[in-house]
Amino acid sequence: MTDQNYSADNIQVLEGLEAVRKRPGMYIGSTDERGLHHLLWEIVDNSIDEAMAGYCNKITITFRSDGGISVLDNGRGIPVDKHSKTGKSALETVLTVLHAGGKFGGGGYKVSGGLHGVGSSVVNALSTKLKAKVFRDNAIWEQSYTIGKPDGPIQKTGTCTTTGTEITYYPDGSIFETLEYNLETVYTRIRQQAYLTKGVELSIIDERENHEPSKYRFYFEGGVSAYVRHINEPKNTLSEIIATETVENDVSVEVALQYTDVYTNTILTFANNIHTIEGGTHLAGFRMALTKVINAYAREHGMLKEKEDNLTADDVKEGITAIISVKVPEPQFEGQTKSKLGNSEVRGIVNKAFSNEFAKYLEENPKDAKHIVGKCLLAARARLAARAARDTVIRKGALEGLTLPGKLADCSSKDPSQSELYIVEGDSAGGSAKQGRDRDIQAILPLKGKILNTEQARLDKILANKEVRSLIVALGVGIGEQFDIEKLRYHKIVVMTDADVDGLHIRTLIMTLFYRYFKPIIEGGYLYIANPPLFKLTKGKQVKYAYSDEEKDDIIVSWGGSITKTNPEDSHNTSITDDIEEIAKKVNIGVQRYKGLGEMNPEQLWETTMDPEKRTMFQVTIHDAEAADAIFDTLMGSEVLPRRKFIQAHAKDADNIDV
What we know:
Elements (H helix, E strand, L loop, with lengths): L17 H5 L2 H4 L4 H20 L5 E6 L5 E5 L16 H7 L22 H7 L1 E10 L2 E8 L2 E2 L4 E5 L4 E8 L11 H14 L4 E6 L7 E5 L5 H8 L10 E7 L2 E9 L6 E6 L2 E2 L5 H20 L12 H5 L2 E8 L16 H21 L1 H34 L20 E6 H11 L5 E6 L11 H5 L2 H10 L16 E5 L4 H17 L1 H5 L3 E4 L4 E5 L2 E5 L2 H12 L15 H11 L3 E4 L8 H9 L6 E3 L5 H12 L3 H11 L9
Helix pairs in contact: 3-5, 8-10, 12-19, 17-18
């Protein structure tokens, strides 16, 4: 059947940057806070490219009081002469034409991170205003834009003796869900870029209204070695930082490694300053070198006996913190997200560079070498013990009914996309949850007490813990080298603990387990935190639930009539809290504070926390793996001093703590 009204007129042609405004998610991923920050990264990355090329050593980001964001560098300045193909100035071409820039063809940049070439033009398209100022050829050149279109031709506005570029843009509030930049997110990203581009000064200035004026400066001469030192600050180290820096066939390699006494590892890889979260050939070359050198040293010095198997890659990486940074003239990234490096030649270059330096370090530092190999041998023994324990868990689980623990109240659905697992604190809450749930799609697993702190335990000890073992078997994905995300039995895993100190501690222990041993579950968006109410309020037959003190107060005020806030400087006036308590008494409002989920009957738990139509839950995500790794190590690791410092620094920010 043919639609007679469907003709050439129905084909929409989007010119210039209209396509970006029509489908912003295709270019910046999303229009939420992440997309907003993506705009900044696009502009900053252009300046970083100038720094990597050796033409820039200062970059300043300013959050202006009028809502604009400025990025100023002292690089060469974007060219302003006329472009032969577009007939516009090079500046206007870069800011208005997709895939235009100095990163194609090899003439502008030998090494670059922004390979798609859409950065500046996309920022221009998604801003209400953008102003470009170029310092070049002893002159100042300026051009302004409104929603991606130039307000007029480029103008020479003065003279100067410096070079560089300043881009000031104003994100479009009709495109983005928020215009509020998170400074912690910015600090983390800029600090990372400063480590990876040593000798370059990056500054952040905050002039925004309703913000404390601030200025931060990041500058590291030590490069990736300083990065490793920063990450390992709260840890006990077993070696000095082992670092190498070399260039071969125009490929620059920087590697820094240090062993610590923890049971996990932190390995961060970068290609042209892009965080390659899925690794790639540079990571493969590093792992090959690490395993080969340690096995060779252990054999040569009699630490591995003739009949013993070689140490595996997992054995030798336990406890390491490593940064691998390569700069490649023609990088081949797998996928649009540039998350994996594919250049085959990089594997051999990294392998050779790190092998030589690492072997030399072990020979020259026998005491450190003994500590390193000793830790690897312990990891190997733990791996064999864990394999035996895991096999026992699997065999026992199979005998007990296809791997399902007896305490699990499973759901009838066998479709993981429809199934939910509630991890509940204690038998009391577990009983209410089992009675109140939707048996078709909701499974309940009660855990008794506080599970093992997996930050301070190897896998063999973890598998010996009954509560952790029950959770592993219920999830169905296995653990360690047998982990398989495709076997996950539930696509919503909900941590539901009491809203008190013990409940928060149990939640943290569970989150530590997931982060260290089931990270793909978090990365897949399958882990959630339940949000049960803190208060039940009643007035006659009316019942409402409040999820915070503020919401409780608002309900009391709405039921009891308006109140007038008194002057806090007048000592004879009562506080707002006293006023609300008086209202509650006056109009006979009952307020029940839930100390635990077990205090709710099944119907209340279903209505407030488990009903898919009414509940609110928090999805657990990992925006910054480095920061997440550091916080888990600080809060759950064996070192007390960093944890004490953290508590002292953040005590005033704590809330929802029952004393």
